[in-house]
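Intended use. Records like the one below are meant for learning the mapping from a protein sequence to its folded structure. Do not use them to infer anything beyond what is encoded.
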Amino acid sequence: MKILHFIFSALLCLAFPAAIIAQEKASPMVFDAYECDFGEVEEAGGTLFHTFTFINGASTPIRILRVSASCSCVSVSYPQGRIEGGQPGEISVAFNPARTFGEVERMVDIFLSDGLPGVSLTLKAQVKPSEYDIEDMYPVALPDGVRITGTSQRFGYLAVGKMAERRIDVINASDKPVTLGTESDNALGFLSVACPERLGPGEAGSFILRYSLPDGAASYGMHEDKVTLLVNDRPCNRTIESSCIGVEDFEGRKGPAPALQVYPSRMEMKRSLLGRGYSGSVVIRNTGSGDLRIRKVDLPDGVTSDLPDGTVIKAGASRKATFRSASAGFSSGLVTNDPVRPYKEIRTTSK
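Structure written out for the chain above:
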């Protein structure tokens, strides 16, 4: 079997020399192809699937740290464990062409652990648009005939020191011009919103939401913001909810890595002897090979903890953390330098 596997690996490498050269980076992941072109497809034709095949061209094991798609219309599944040297693997992608049209190109970036160079894969399609009513394309109605595509944007993880932006499309479906604006209670100033000041009848545009997290302790953790929309200088009864989680920038990170483990998975909250509030504890373990750093303990209002920001837990060590609250039900979060799980939510159960 080893001889057969060696022959398969060798043939795979020989069969695709152009693709290997085109990748340019000396990544241990060697793919049979780095691009998939679905060709001409219907927007309403449903989700499209493709599997990229690769081998680990190195002599040592590799592990995929994370995968990032350039659009929420693409989902990716990939091997979660170690991939031994010379072993094959698969990256499966699903592309939903809904709400896209024309020439579409999406990227899938693969990041490896231990600072090894990763790989970028490309998906292409020529999407033929479907016939939609305005109500289908812009399902959320605002005053004076204005409609938008949605009321929330979840950015997910965002590295401290970086910037990311998303958009919500808007159209004036009325026969009169309208003015647009926004108001926000964004106290930290990490979120900015831009929109067209005026839209003529039938004219479309976009609300551009941009998170920019400066270097510093305040940038770590969950950030949630609400943006009030203004139409013709009047606040709407609709708001845009936006959020991101500030974490470390793991790009190019090398060396020993920590691994966070929290036990139990749900913290049991018990009423205090005096009947005033609840308390509960979890054990935080570092099962990795590097120091685990608690960048921030995200606590809701009314909750306290004896785990301070900046706590360091050595490899193989553990620490007990106690939480106190006026109510039994809440959730908190730990922001750490664990590259696999930089944010761990701690939920509670009462007894």
